[in-house]
Design goal:
Number of strands: 0
Number of domains: 1
Structural class: mainly alpha
Number of helices: 3
Distance between the termini: 63 Å
Helix content: over 70%
Radius of gyration: 17 Å
């Protein structure tokens, strides 16, 4: 039974690695969000994981949004 769990874990880890490596071409933020969305899909979109995903998105893009808002206010 342990070998089945280990094989399943390794397959999922390989899929996440492939997705992360592929999306890394577009940048770190896109790679993290793409991998997170893949995990969210694998975990059947439970509400707690959706909230965690939203927090990660806000944490990754808050500096960019702040700069845009600050730039808009100064004009």
């Amino acid at each position: 039974m342990d070998i089945i769990a280990e094989i399943a874990f390794r397959i999922i880890a390989l899929m996440i690695d492939i997705i992360y490596t592929t999306l890394r071409f577009f940048g770190f933020r896109i790679a993290v969000l793409g991998s997170g969305f893949f995990l969210l899909h694998m975990l059947s979109y439970h509400p707690i994981f959706i909230i965690i995903f939203i927090v990660v998105v806000i944490a990754l893009y808050a500096p960019v949004i702040y700069k845009l808002v600050k730039k808009r206010k100064s004009n």
